[in-house]
Amino acid sequence: MAIKELKQSNYEWIDLYNPDAKELEKIANKYSLNYYTLTDSLEPNHLPKFENQDTINFFIVRLVHENLKRKTNIESLTNKIAVFYNDHLLITIHRIEIPFLEVIIEKYIKTEKIYTVNSIVIKIIWNTLYTYNTSILKILSKVENLENKVFLKSPDSSSNILQNMYLLKRKVNICMKLLILTDEVINSIKPTKQEKPAHQDVKDLQVKLSTLYEQVIEDINNLLNLYISLASLKSNDIMKTLTIFSIFFMPLTFIAGIYGMNFKYMPELEKAWGYPVILIIMLIITLIIYYWLKRKKWL
User: Fold this and answer.
1) How does pLDDT run across 126-160, given as a tens digit for each residue?
2) Topology adopted by domain 234-295
3) Domain residue spans in the chain?
4) Which of 34, 64, 111, 188 allows an S-S link to 131, with CB 3.0 to 4.6 Å?
5) Contact, 118 vs 195, CB < 8 A?
């Protein structure tokens, strides 16, 4: 476990990186925290939530990270950060390194741009939400790429386009659900008059991201329906081609079937002109069918 402690005149910030259960128990005893609430921070799939306890507030938010594996579950797409805070104490707990925590310290705390725990909490939530903004930009690029594959018919589009659409849709749906749950955390924060503009920025970002994710979900659904429609249209074209071939060959097959029945009395078979006449009749039938299909605009 890596522990970073930042002591200011009016508060203390303790950052815990990948602690185990025993280390959390020590922290719980030292700062009189509810141990069972503290263990929530170790659960990998815990959803965002906010709890207002007697002397301290507790919340969990999840940030999106780059997923190199083709998995679409909460644990593989996001990581959580658990936060305990009151006016004089801030404890952050996370399993992976979170670069924006160091940015908050260097850019805002050491420069004295923010000087309260509530302000730090608002910055943590804002930076957490911003990871969804980075993610949606990548998703939009992938959706555009899928659109090009659908309309331009890339060589590999038929093999993996449906799977890619499914993975994108799953990811967007998960992110959308987490954004909705994070809204409860945002609304549970009680900013002071000086903190209200920053808090409103967080609210605005959440609304913007929710709108973007909703739009992307709609776009993916439309693209999926369009792809299925185009696939059906392609199947219909194939059936149409096979039907046209059968229209040409059905009467010709009928004629060939008649003269293949081996009856003893078929006088035209003994005539010298029998064979060429039958061929001419077949040709005329073929031309009539072709003309009829042309008039119907099936060719």
Assistant:
1) 999 999 998 999 889 888 888 888 777 654 555 57
2) Methane Monooxygenase Hydroxylase; Chain G, domain 1 (1.20.58)
3) 2-233, 234-295
4) 64
5) yes
